[in-house]
Amino acid sequence: MTQLTRTQVVIVGAGPAGLFLAHLLHRQGIESVVLDTRTREEIEQTIRAGVLEDWTADLMRELGLGARMDREAHFHTGITLQHGQTRCHLDLMELTGGKRVTVYPQHEVLRDLIAGLEAAGGQMLFGVRDVDLREVTAARPRVTFRRREDGPLETLEGDFVAGCDGSQGGSRQFIEGRTEYQKVYPFGWLGILVEAPPSHHELIYARHERGFALLSTRSSTVQRLYIQCGAGEHVSAYPDERIWQELRARLAAPDWQLTEGRIFQKGIVGLRSFVTDRMQQGPLFIAGDAAHIVPPTGAKGLNLAVADAVYLFRGLEQFYRDGHRERLERYSETCLRRVWRAERFSWSMTTMLHVDPTENAFEQRIHVADLEYVTHSRAAATALAENYVGLPLDG
Ligand code: PHB
Fold first, then answer.
1. What does pLDDT average to over the chain?
2. CB of residue 296 inside a 6 A radius of ligand 1
3. What residues does the FAD-binding domain cover (predicted)?
């Protein structure tokens, strides 16, 4: 006999989609249990990027989770685009009628969400094992798991299951008749954390003949920098001095100096665009990276996951309030409209700013022309800014 626990919504995955969903449901008195195979420490310590659109930052505040973000995050009213040694400042605030972005890494967001849910009495189970999702689309959807290696098998049954288990998670496999769209870019990002004060007051996205570079920030003493690297490369190919040479070359500009310091973290990620065109199957709804991936160049990943959580919450809230399923039925369609626009933007930023070794000289010149266009046309700059600060949730 396995131990059976009932809840209203079983949430598989304690990432941004799962935890925002749990908070929104909890606030409305809808019960959920969040499960994750990772430990709380792993979730809170895995270094991730994080650029929050205004509505995402506002949602943190609305949920009573904004205090640390408001103290520690960096608020940017503009970004810098660089081509060769020429820089162009894009005034996001002016171009978008008052919007800005918040640089607050995803693992910090998750720490605040977990602490907040714990304080509110929300149920989260970390480090669970032997998770079995085979019954997630059954009439009474359920997930089985063990809390510890030698613990008993437990069953968690809900009215619904939210598959928020990321790109490698298993929940997507249960969506029948789905089509998957993918583009794998032939390059990756090498990211470093550096003990050094900021070199610049805002993010710099640079296209250089040696490849892309991005200068971002974490605090007054820690900087985050990235360089384009080969898709299959390993960090061992990048001793510190090689990284600095590349950063100095790619970010060089007249009368400007990169502040350098001790590199205390290095990692490589591949770049990929991916969309699943169906995000639901019976009582199962998938959200966030489980359903779609964007390359980090557009800074959209976290916001897309939170948008899915909001749309799913609205559907569930309608169902529990008056028994109607219209919003749930339109869930995939509602999410995917926004997802495809963010995919388009992330792809266009990526192709515009990277040097793709598989493209011919004509294609590469077109990307340079794209960059020239956004840095010389107010209309093009406005379009980039509108997407960068985030399209409206109901657009
Ligand atoms: C980051 O600070 O890690 C960061 C910022 C902007 C991006 C990607 C990553 O587009």
1. 97
2. yes
3. 6-346
